[in-house]
Input
Amino acid sequence: MVFLRFAMVRARSRTPLLLACGLVLITATGCGGGPAPWTSAEAGRPSPVATAPQPPLDPGPYNAVLRSVVDGQGLVDYAALQRDPAQLDRYIKALGALAPERFASWPEAEQIALLINAYNAFTLRAIIDNDPIRPSIKAIPGVWKFRRHQLMGRGLTLDAIEHEILRREYNEPRIHAALVCAAISCPPLRQEAFTGAALERQLEDQTTRWLASPVGLAIDRAAGTLGISAIFQWFAEDWQRADPQAEPVPGHEKQSAVLRFIARYRPAAERALILGGDYRFAYLPYNWDLNRQSP
Output
């Protein structure tokens, strides 16, 4: 267990800020570990008044990284990034120096975009901090729940960013198509930073790409099986919260919200099959090998 000083109050409904110092207990186990329980010593303190929107953080340095080391399949040239991490470190430094009040002034889409970028950038840094580079992120002790990254002046773990801010404060399950925990079975890492202005398009595209890949969805008509990413099992509650009145899928009622979400992103024939329910359902094995480009 580790205690860290962590601030999160709201400038308005469902707007997380890292302003007030709360005592948070982080105990989650990472990308597949579910939410990390926390308690705040200052829960209930009044929220500050939101100011006029200030400029978003410049994603230029992070875009330069993504364009140079990520290929069209979302795989990463970690060796090249390890040799030249200057642009990544420049962006990470900006994340640490970002004023909470500036973040609070942004619309929700801009906040979500920044937090996704921060999670993915910090993950890249965690991978290249090991020499030699580990074959799996799971081979890095404490990578999700112990290692802290500077975000808006606070030392936060990857678990805190994912579970305590993004998942808790925003009702947006498509973040799971955008957060990349450096594994082969993760969704593809995008070759561009997320931005508030483009977030809707980017999340739709990410979800479409993920579910078109065998790590997101696997249908075998001959065998009568349908397999989906284990991410849908680990975080099923996020889709249920987003669609609490999901019409039941015959034979798979507990997975109805997830299956109806997936069906939206598939061609008509597959959509009919998914919603018809006539298949054996399973979660796909998760490949934790590093999402690295071949030498």
